[in-house]
Amino acid sequence: MRRRLVLTAVATGAATIAGCTSERATDDTNEGATDDTNERATDGDDGTDGYEPCELSILSYARLPEAIKDEVDVALKEGQYATEGELLWSEISGPELEALKKDDSYYTPIVDRNGVKETTLQFKEITPQYDETITLPIYNSTDKSLEISVTVKDGGRTVLEETDLTLQELTDPTLDEREPEGESGPLKEENLSHDKEIPIGSEYGEYTVEITVEDQETISKAVELGGASRFDDNPDYILVQEGSKEQSFSVEIITIEYPMYDPAACPWEH
Fold it and tell me: Is residue 66 part of a domain?
């Protein structure tokens, strides 16, 4: 299920969800643009003029074409990028676009025409979050019921602490049918006994899940929410299973992979 994003501005003031999108002009005469940028502005990913829009809701800066990075760099460093010609950023902005991710920060784009000739690009730092708390079901793949305690942390802040949770034992474990014969894969959810959902959080970012099993040992795992994808690529569930000689139990954060898709691909990456 795809969950809607809510974009909250980091700076004081109301959140900016979207900027004013202007009509595209024809000739790029921005004073700060290089000859190389102007040349690439007419050479898109398929050899034709311009770029095709991307369907992602979050764009990763690292994967942008170099000519578009030039615009973004100026906008982030100087407060805005201005051009009297075509804004390349507008070409890649698909209808689902909500933010740009650079390093660990997120920015919402603001495209505006300040006059008849000039178009500007600005970015406002934001904190993306879902409109509901993301929860993960927790499964027990062992052959006995388990007593566990769960703590969820956001940085140094504890956001959830639950004790004395009982996980029923697994009844009929089988490998996922999507996996090729002979290769291991995640267990089918319908064959795993569970009646517990662990609330993780609503904001994009990394959380720490600490699970203590049978008061014996505490296992910490990182859970990443959000990402540059057109699909909801959050983890699917938490799995408690038999451990190795060093540990009685192990905990895995499971994300079901679909190798036939490339969810983070944009047209210029093909």
Answer: yes
